[in-house]
Amino acid sequence: MRLTETADVWWKNAVVYCLDIETFFDTDGDGRGDIRGLSQRIDHLAELGVTCLWLMPFYPTPDRDDGYDITDFYGVDSRLGTHGDLVELITLAQDRGMRVIADLVVNHTSDQHPWFQSARASRESPYRDWYVWRDEPPEDADKGIVFPDQEDSLWQYDEQAGQYYLHQFYKHQPDLDIANPEVREEITRILGFWLQLGLSGFRVDAVPFLLETKGSLDAADLPDPHDYLRDLRAFLNRRNGQAVLLGEVNLPYKDTRTFFGDEDGDELTMCFDFIGMQKLYLSLARSEPAELVKALRERPDPPEEAQWGTFVRNHDELTLDKLTEDEKKEVFAAFGPEEDMQLYGRGLRRRLPPMLGNDQARLRMVYSMLFTLPGTPVLFYGEEIGMGENLAADGRNAVRSPMQWTRDPNGGFSTADPDQLAGLVVEGELSPEHVNVADQRRDPDSLLNWIKLLIQRYRECPELSWGKYTILEHESPTVYAQLSEYEGGAVVALHNFSDEPAEVTLALAGTGVGVRVADLLTGKTSEVDNDGTLRHPVGPYGCCWLRVLRPDDRYII
Ligand code: NOJ
């Protein structure tokens, strides 16, 4: 591996960990996690092998959308801490070789933001044109509503303003107008500010919505919103050559591809693979990886200087919007048959372990997939210990429970009264009594130690993060087989989606005489025939990471 690649293009083999400060660790006993709490617990993440923290919004907010409704893009929510605490956190992270990125939520502001307050108060306000106004809502005002359960239009009449404003999300989140050059300049300033404080980039919220200028009467001033994204990226990397934009783009593949920019990869550094994620669940439901394979074959390659972001779960519902109605039904039947597990027919407000009946072998296989699939793996806090959801919480908050540190009350997250906590603690089989960091640290067979192992091996295999991958053909329909190659090294990953044992026969081209494979997860070796044929068993929900060993290779297994 070329050394410059690991530092300058660090994100290619990063392990990203997303967390919300308010549900991570509370040090002042007010029931809400805080920045100091995260700093105190940062070694948990360093030991896990995380290389990049993604902080969910920590800005001042009325908190009507879990902080994605912001009233000051330059501020830190005083309930969470101060700028000083944040800089300390970033320094502590850097000491441990971790970078920190944060959510950049500039498609909209909170309606409590002083800009909107001023904009709605007068047509003469300097901020009036920062938002998108109309005297009458357009005819397609009800098309493309993101939260159909709560909203019935993208346009809201504002008494004070005497006009309608555009809001692609909740009505309390008026859209900023990026066709307005002043808005674009302000967004640049926001980026510059946080980069200067030490962030290494941003998870960009709702990118297609941000670039959408249809509603804007000034759209003509912005011929191609992608030019704007390109400018933003150029600015970012002028200020910090290693900084990244990790974009939330949930579109069909061919459209998502455009957000990476041209062949130089000059727009988003990474885009989440929402389709691959959804097809993974469909494949799990069918105990066969065929649908995932189909998706991966259709998935466009990102430019050389870009990468997909892979994930199993995140802080929102598990969206199934890219599946057909029948496919969606299959996933619901398998993983969320009860109505309150579903979110208005479009997804599941669940975490993975309860969806899989807490089947440890299957769970471990899925995470093994996450770390071998081509793309940068992104974990959501609590996944490393197998946390569940609390369906008693409202909507998407079901998956946003406090982190489970110990068996103590509130899972050791906070000393406050349970009814004062920032989220509902998980109950039942996956409650802190049964699932917590402290117990799993001491248990060599825990999920936590499994994920640590996966991360270690992933970091040791540039083939997985830097290499080219090929999906291998074979006769067993329940096994996903993938060859990853980089600079002469090769790793074959096998994953069995079924609870029945399987065996695969693979043709490994050009291997030669005396070749073996060694399973990086167990150390077990097997011979490869002289003609390159490898026969290998894969247990029920089994996974193997097979490093190809030629006679004079000198790897540590
Ligand atoms: C996407 C975020 O992931 C979600 O949580 C939020 O509600 C919307 N964007 C609006 O910001």
UniProtKB/TrEMBL annotation:
InterPro entries cross-referenced by the UniProt entry: GH (IPR017853), GH13_cat_dom (IPR006047), Glyco_hydro_b (IPR013780), O16G_dom_2 (IPR045857), SupH-like_C (IPR054049)
Species this chain originates from: Kribbella sancticallisti
Glycosyl hydrolase family 13 catalytic domain span: 18-434
SMART domains named among the record's database cross-references: Aamy (SM00642)
Domain of life assignment: Bacteria
Annotated protein name in UniProt: Alpha-amylase family protein
Gene3D superfamilies, A to Z: Glycosidases, Golgi alpha-mannosidase II, Oligo-1,6-glucosidase, Domain 2
